[in-house]
Write a structure and sequence with these properties.
alpha/beta, 4-stranded parallel sheet, 11 helices, 15 strands, about 30% helix, globular
Length: about 350
């Protein structure tokens, strides 16, 4: 999308895009009035197919780098977030950037970071701002993650009232932290017998929804809860995973009072992703849907069912003996045809 900052519509119409051709070395494509769109705030822009993407480095604590990243944008998506505090740093060189030795706390990322981004968006009068939050965002939640997500929503809406807030449920897909976590041998300990309930959502569906919001100005100032069609407990999803990978993963239940301090210690000592005390707390919180929020149906999207994708994402966890077997659902259908079910109504 080409931004015409401070330019009259006539200037936009005369804009030229040059593309290289292997035969004639280049050609000029003139844009007509049909290529010009007026944004929600009255700014004329040229909508073109394709285009290029440039990566730009920024620091969440560096306001100048954030402003440079958004100043020429028509739409800004904030996808920055953490589900656990980053590790402790012992070097004195980082003293000015840490809170009790931490690099980034949940407060730093979800509240202060979101505030700086929203300030930059408001300063440069960006047309649209889409802020990705989380399900269960609640200022009174016992989970610090959910509390900071809710505070971040309040901050961005205060600074930029037209913000579109998106609350995705736990997401499954390639490299997710749901199916792959359950399929891994390292997911050993749990604190609530895996009884947490939620509506898992496909990453592709979330991406489709975010893309739809790009073109639909009616989504401005709205809040969306994006969740899948079926409510599962974590234990039910673990059972689906075990069936798909032909393995039985062990899950040992540890009392919350013991697992929380253990998770806290592991998060401090190990540099790689393990777990955190707040993640243990979230195991006891079921997903709640805001009845006032809009959903996939308001965007004309039908979300996919988790059990239809387990084979697609988990086949790599099978041993070579079972790798080429059909998906679990297909096997069940074949087994069902072998038997004649008689229902006795007497």
């Amino acid at each position: 999308m080409l931004t015409c900052l401070g330019s009259p519509v006539s200037t936009c119409i005369r804009a030229v895009r040059k593309t290289k051709s292997s035969r004639n070395g280049g050609r000029e494509i003139w844009r007509g009035l049909q290529d010009v769109s007026i944004t929600r705030t009255g700014r004329p822009i040229i909508r073109i197919q394709g285009g290029s993407t440039r990566g730009k480095e920024f620091d969440l604590r560096n306001t100048a780098s954030l402003e440079e990243s958004v100043r020429h944008s028509d739409v800004v998506y904030n996808l920055v977030g953490r589900d656990y505090p980053t590790k402790y740093l012992e070097s004195k060189d980082f003293a000015d950037y840490t809170d009790n030795g931490r690099n980034f706390s949940l407060e730093d990322v979800h509240v202060e970071g979101a505030e700086r981004i929203a300030e930059a968006v408001a300063k440069y009068d960006v047309d649209r701002f889409i802020h990705v939050s989380s399900y269960n965002a609640d200022i009174n939640s016992p989970s610090e993650f959910f509390r900071t997500k809710a505070r971040g929503e309040e901050v961005v809406r205060t600074l930029f009232p037209e913000t579109t807030i998106v609350r995705p449920a736990p997401v499954f897909g390639f490299e997710d932290r749901l199916l792959h976590r359950l399929a891994s041998v390292t997911n050993l300990f749990t604190a609530n017998h895996m009884q947490e309930r939620f509506w898992p959502v496909h990453a592709i569906d979330v991406g489709t929804a975010l893309s739809a919001m790009l073109e639909d100005d009616n989504t401005a100032s709205e809040t969306y809860e994006l969740f899948g069609p079926t409510n599962y407990s974590m234990a039910e999803i673990a059972e689906l995973v075990d069936k798909e990978i032909y393995k039985r993963r062990r899950h040992i239940n540890v009392p919350k009072v013991a697992l929380k301090p253990m998770a806290q210690l592991l998060n401090q000592l190990l540099w790689w992703k393990t777990t955190s005390a707040d993640e243990v707390e979230r195991e006891f919180l079921d997903q709640k849907i805001d009845p006032k929020a809009k959903t996939f149906s308001d965007l004309g999207i039908t979300p996919g069912e988790l059990k239809n994708f387990t084979f697609h994402y988990l086949q790599g966890y099978r041993s070579s003996a079972y790798y080429d077997l059909p998906p679990a659902t297909e096997r069940e259908k074949r087994e069902e045809k072998k038997y004649l079910h008689v229902i006795d109504d007497q």
